[in-house]
TrEMBL record:
It comes from Streptomyces ardesiacus. The lineage of its organism: Bacteria, Bacillati, Actinomycetota, Actinomycetes, Kitasatosporales. The keyword Methyltransferase does not apply. It comes from the Bacteria. The chain crosses the membrane at residues 92-111. This is GH18 domain-containing protein. Keywords: Membrane, Transmembrane, Transmembrane helix.
C-alpha cells in the first residue's frame, strides 16, 4: 500500500534453417538440369566408366595433416562439436532452472500445508479491528449522508480505529493544511455516530530509497518536519497519527529515530501512534536476497519488525500484494505472516493483519487468490498456532471505497460472527 498509489482516487475518490534458401534447392541451377552435362548430350547414353581404368591416388599427392589440428579437425569435427555444446548448454539451463524452482516449489508446498487444519475456538474479533479510509472523507467530497451510511456499516463490525488518508506529505515532511479542510467535521461526526471509534490521520509519502525522488529520512530537518505534521493533525482533532512510508528498507535507523520522536508527541497528547508495516521475511534474510535480485527488498527482518513494534501503539501488517497465485497459497502465507508477527510483537502493542478489500489483477496481486475469506482463515490459523489468547490483536481492512458486499460478508462471517 503505497501512499502515492492513490487507491483512494477511484470513482468516488478522486515478460537450423536458412530463411533465404528453400529446402533442397540450388539457386544457381534451373529446374531439372545438370550444369556439368554438355549441351545436346543425353546423360543416359554416356558409357559407364570402368573402375579398373581409374588412376590410383598417389599418396605423395595427399595433403599432409596439420599437426596443430587434432584428429577431429575439419568440417566434420566442427559439426560434431556443435551438438556437444548445445547439450552442455541445455544441461546448464536445466540445472539453473532446478536451482530456482525446487526451493520455490518447496516453499509453496509448505504454504499449502500451513493452510490446512481448523482454527481454534475463540479466534474471532476482539473488537480491536481497523480500516483504512480514502481521502474523500476529509477534503469535502463526502457528505453527512455518507457518514451515516458508513456508521451503519461499521456498527455490526469489530472496527474501532479508522485510518483516514490525510496526506500525502511533501517530500520535505511538511503537510499542506489545504489537503484536509473537512477533517475536524469528519472526526466530530464519527465521535457522534460511532462512540468509542478513533480517527487517526493516515500520513504517508514515497521514500527516496529506490529512486532519486522522494522523502529522505536521513535528513534531520525532514524528520523534524514530519513530527511537526503529526502535531498539526492532532491540533485538527485527530485521535492519532498513522504513518505509511514506503518503500522502507529493513534496518532503517532513521525511521526508528522518527518513531521515537513522533511517539513523544502522541503520548503527551494522549493520542495513538500506528504504522503500516511491511511483511516479514518468509525465510531468514530473504529481504537481502530479493533486494539483490530485484532491487526491491520488499520484506523486513523479523528483528526489525519487532524494533518497530516496540515503538508504536499499533502496527498493521500490509498482508496483501503477496505474489501468491492461488487462494490456498495466499491463505497459508497470511497464516505464516500472522505467526511471525505475533512472535515479534510485544503483547503491549496492538497487532493488526491487513485484509484486501480491493480488487486488482497485476503482478504481485491476483484478485482470485487474495480474497478476504482466505486472509481471515489464514489469520485465524496463525493466531491459533502461535498465541490464540492474544488480546491486543485484530484485522485491518484496506480500503473502504473499493470494498464489495462479498468482502464485508467474508469479514463478518469468518471473523466477527
Amino acid at each position: 500500500m503505497a501512499d502515492t498509489d492513490r487507491r483512494d482516487t477511484g470513482p468516488e475518490d478522486a515478460p537450423g534453417t536458412d530463411p533465404e534458401a528453400g529446402p533442397g534447392t540450388d539457386p544457381e541451377a534451373g529446374p531439372g538440369t545438370d550444369p556439368e552435362d554438355p549441351p545436346g548430350t543425353d546423360p543416359e547414353d554416356a558409357p559407364e566408366p570402368d573402375p579398373e581404368d581409374a588412376p590410383e591416388p598417389d599418396p605423395e599427392d595427399a595433403p599432409e595433416p596439420d599437426p596443430a589440428a587434432g584428429p577431429e579437425a575439419g568440417p566434420k569435427a566442427a559439426d560434431g562439436a556443435r551438438p556437444r555444446w548445445k547439450k552442455r548448454l541445455r544441461r546448464i539451463a536445466l540445472a539453473v532452472l532446478l536451482i530456482l524452482l525446487v526451493p520455490l516449489l518447496t516453499a509453496e508446498a509448505a504454504l499449502r500445508v500451513t493452510y490446512m487444519g481448523d482454527p481454534a475456538d475463540g479466534t474471532h474479533t476482539r473488537d480491536r479491528d481497523a480500516m483504512w479510509l480514502g481521502h474523500a472523507w476529509v477534503d469535502g467530497r463526502k457528505t453527512d449522508a455518507d457518514l451515516t451510511a458508513l456508521a451503519r456499516e461499521l456498527k455490526t463490525t469489530g472496527i474501532r480505529d479508522l485510518y483516514v488518508h490525510t496526506g500525502p506529505m511533501e517530500h520535505d515532511g511538511t503537510l499542506p493544511e489545504s489537503l484536509y479542510p473537512n477533517a475536524r467535521r469528519f472526526v466530530e461526526g464519527v465521535h457522534r455516530e460511532l462512540p468509542g471509534v478513533r480517527v487517526q490521520a493516515f500520513l504517508g509519502d514515497v521514500l527516496a530509497t529506490e529512486s532519486p525522488d522522494g522523502m529522505r529520512l536521513e535528513k534531520a530537518s525532514t524528520r523534524a518536519a514530519v513530527v511537526g505534521s503529526a502535531r498539526q493533525v492532532l491540533d485538527a482533532g485527530y485521535d492519532g497519527v498513522h504513518l505509511d512510508l514506503e518503500p522502507l528498507h529493513s534496518g532503517d535507523r532513521d525511521y526508528l529515530s522518527l518513531l521515537d520522536d513522533v511517539r513523544a508527541v502522541t503520548r503527551a497528547r494522549d493520542a495513538r501512534l500506528s504504522v503500516a508495516a511491511h511483511q516479514i521475511d518468509p525465510l531468514p534474510g530473504f529481504h537481502s536476497f530479493w533486494g539483490t535480485v530485484a532491487g526491491h527488498p520488499k520484506w523486513w527482518s523479523q528483528e526489525f519488525f519487532g524494533q518497530v513494534a516496540r515503538r508504536v501503539d499499533q502496527i498493521a501488517v500490509m498482508s496483501y500484494d503477496t505474489m501468491q497465485p492461488l487462494e490456498s497459497l495466499y491463505g497459508g502465507y497470511v497464516a505464516q505472516q500472522t505467526s511471525l508477527a505475533l512472535e515479534a510483537t510485544p503483547p503491549t502493542t496492538h497487532l493488526l493483519m491487513g485484509l484486501p478489500f480491493y480488487h486488482e489483477n497485476r503482478f504481485g496481486h491476483w484478485n482470485h487468490a487474495e480474497t478476504v475469506a482466505a486472509a481471515v482463515r489464514g489469520v485465524r490459523l496463525g493466531l491459533s498456532r502461535t498465541d490464540a489468547g492474544r488480546e491486543r490483536f485484530g484485522v485491518a481492512a484496506y480500503i473502504d471505497f473499493a470494498a464489495t458486499e462479498e468482502d464485508w460478508a467474508s469479514y463478518r462471517d469468518g471473523w466477527v460472527r
